[in-house]
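Dear support,

We are seeing what looks like truncated structure output for some complexes. This example has two components. We would appreciate it if you could run it in full and send us the complete token output so we can diff it against ours.
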Amino acid sequence: MNTMLADILLVSPMIALFLFSLIPLSIKVLRGNVEQSPTATIIIGLIGLFLTAGLLIVFGGSGKTAFNGQLVFDGLTQWMGLIAVMAAGGSMVLMYENPATRGRQFSELIFLAMNSIVGMLILVSAVDLITVFIGLELMSLALYLMIAMSHEQKISKEAAIKYFVLGSFASAIFLYGVSFIFGSAGTINILDLMENASILVKTNKVFMFGIAFVTLGFCFKVSIAPFHAWTPDVYQGAPTPVTSFMATAVKTVSFAAFLRVLATKPLIGSENLFLVLQWFAVITMTLGNVAALVQTNLKRTLAYSSISHSGYILVGAITAGISQNSAFAASSVVFYLLGYSLMTFGAFAIVSLIEKNEGHSIQTEDLAGFAKNQPLLAFCFAIFLLSLAGIPPLLGFFGKFYLFSAAVSEGLLWLALWGVLNSAIGVYYYLRPIVVMYMHEGDCDVSDERHFGTTTTIVIAALLIIVLGLASGPLFNSIEMALM
Amino acid sequence: MLSALIFLPIVFAIVMAVWPQKNTVRHLALGFSLIQFALSLVMLSRFDSSTAALQMVEQTAWIQRFGISYFLGIDGISVMLVMLTTFLVPIIILGSWNSIDKQVKGFHAALFVLQAAMLGSFLSMDAILFYVFWELSLVPMYFIVGIWGGSRRIYATLKFFIYTMTGSMLMLLAIIFMMRLTPEVTGGAISASLLDFYKLNIPFVAGEFLTPQTLLFFAFAIAFAIKVPMFPLHTWLPDAHVEAPTPGSVVLAGVMLKMGTYCFLRWVIPLFPEAAEHYAWIFIALGVIGIIYGALVAMVQPDVKKLVAYSSVSHMGYILVGLFVMNQYGVNGALYQMLNHGISTGALFLLIGMIYERTHSREISKYGGLASVMPYFTIAFVIVTMSSIAVPLTNGFVGEFLILLGSYVYSPVVAVFSVTGVVLGAAYMLWMVKRVFFGPKGELVRGSGNDSSDGHGHGAVITHANHDVHDAHAADHHPLLDLSTREVVVLVPLIIMIFWMGIFPNHFMDFSKASVDYLVKNKMDYSIPLSANAAQAQEK
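Here is the complete output from our reference environment:
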């Protein structure tokens, strides 16, 4: 009984979030399917998120396991969960103020978003591959609907179908891999696998297939080339707040689960797998950056940029996988994801604001004159882009620094070299929006109505990028302490 | 003290950005920059020039996990460059009084951030801190060229940014690599302190390329050579110079290029002495090629600003040669020449800016006979030209003489080739002076002058409507008016410096001599000693 209670306390963040997600939906049903004020919905949603974050801080990092070792609540769960909740909360504010998502179905959208976050929290805490799958599916199913729900853009339906079909395919491959692992190892608990995985890797081909399939499933979710093809289309087609949700929170938690599989070292001895992953990282970085160079649509540029960042993060995940002391490399990944989420969220938030005014999807050229009309927002956008490009002393630079330091210390010099060269390519397309904003004449502006919440989140994100960049030492230390 | 020097401009920049009154922005900026200059003079008065030690050290841990600290210090190598930076900024602000007429607040804020970043990179003694400032300096410069520059400004500014960024990315990787080596000398902990880097003994095998020291040497050297810029990595410079607004060109030529050469002296030579010595010939050869190539290309330029830009390539070639001959004369001369080039090329760009404000043209062929219309301007221009071509009694002579002496000691062949640069330099500069100031009046000069007729200049004047009321009024009637009081105030300090540094070089060289001599003597086993109180500060 007591253990049961302890387990429930541990999963209280998920329970709280789920209960809160029911409130706006229930109100709507009780009022006879009449949409209540979106303001009430978003306030309830944000209170739920704050509560979840609080519970996660209190119960999340104890290192305990729940439900017969299916869920673990350690530093990784806590940090990745908090990053995801933060990014998702910001994206929900965007949903509230973007006409593409705020509408007659806003309470359903928030319900879905919050349940998607429940899935994320399961995903970051799961150590059992089936539970990982449940988390992944809960998160994704809600997401498919969120993408399709935009009532303005037809293109979002196409994006949703594309994502749904390919996503289901990837899930199936993942599940197939899990069955292989279960068949060969007799367990699907990652922590149990550790004990005899290194032998199985060498002796059992079926096990190796299983691991490979699971890895591919993850590669799809975090858009690692050559499994990235859905990313630009879906990111472009989805309503911008949902894109921001996907690019930040979803990517963070998917990497968290990926990292857990890679970094808990069931795979030591499988050099081939890591070699393949290294090549994936190289291809992803190159492809993301080179493709971003030729994009004219701002959201598409950011989508390819997000692919290239997946490549950088994969370098960190590989380092965590092959190093003896994975806490250092793993914390560099967490740190990078924190920075990446903040700056990507900020960039999409700006896009969401401008898009509202322009009334159509925006090209980079449409930004002209933004700096003159909205100096503060343009400055924040410049901060986000420079941080994405890795200019010191912003958070993005320190993220890259830790990531590549970890890689160099594990002897992955060539990956670090490649990453660094790619960052130099990246500078070009990150600077272009700044060029257009500041140096071209135009009339890009933000419409007057309702953007207080978005502006606030943008300014907070920009401030965090500067402040956390300067205070990156203590921040990194606390992450590393939590992951030890 | 040093922190104040770096962070005061940042505070200034923030104040400028939020300053409510538009028409007092320039006065405020000028006041701030003078405060900054006064502060640097106080710093100079406390500087002990008799020792090679690192002084006024400030060190606090920043990112302990990686041994990165906030570590500032100043010695003879950096002190004069710091002074050059603080000296030029007020002049730049006064010099751009009329030429910057849009987003004045933003411009001055960017200028102060740039100043902070440049001072930071001169004063940092920690690799990562240095890298932060080094990269940070790109951003304001990028905006200065991109927003206030000429017609092809966006191309130029992107080229500038990406060139430099590519180089520095390699350097970042090299820094990370070196940090990984430091546990050898610190007894276990990683450190990014430059002093610990100096203690490293990085393996070097002569003739083999793939040794750590050689690779690290080239990673650093290429990053800095792009900034210098060394032939053949110089192509961003003429573009950036031509498109930059006058103040941008002055900062670029005056200080930013020196960041590259300074870093050779602070980083490359003491950190990788064997590799530097072994591969010095490459840099000397490219330096000499740069001298001659820059001069030859400068000679055929129709645009006077481009001419000066290529002359920069040529002059920076001298500095490279001086650095890499690695003897007392050469290095002292190179350091001195950095200051000279900052002052004389800075002055040239300011003068060109002044004439451009009046006529909106930089084409040499459209001028001619300017001397009779603008006599004082001509005098100033000729003096600066003399400094640029190293006529005795001007500062340029001292620097070039020392470099040539140093290169002769290294190898007479190098000296012979370098000397051709002096001749060519005199040729293109004097020819340009002749075509612009003397001879028959050109189309822009004709019809203007003191007798205010309806010439070409008139039409040009209407286009720059945002002049000061006073100046605009005057310029309306006399398009080619001689120097205004403001412009005289801008130029006089520079001209004073030209002669002061030319006649009494020891007043300036004494500050750096101890450090340079120490570096040259001990380059194989270099480590900057800490001054007594600095050592105490570090203990804490």
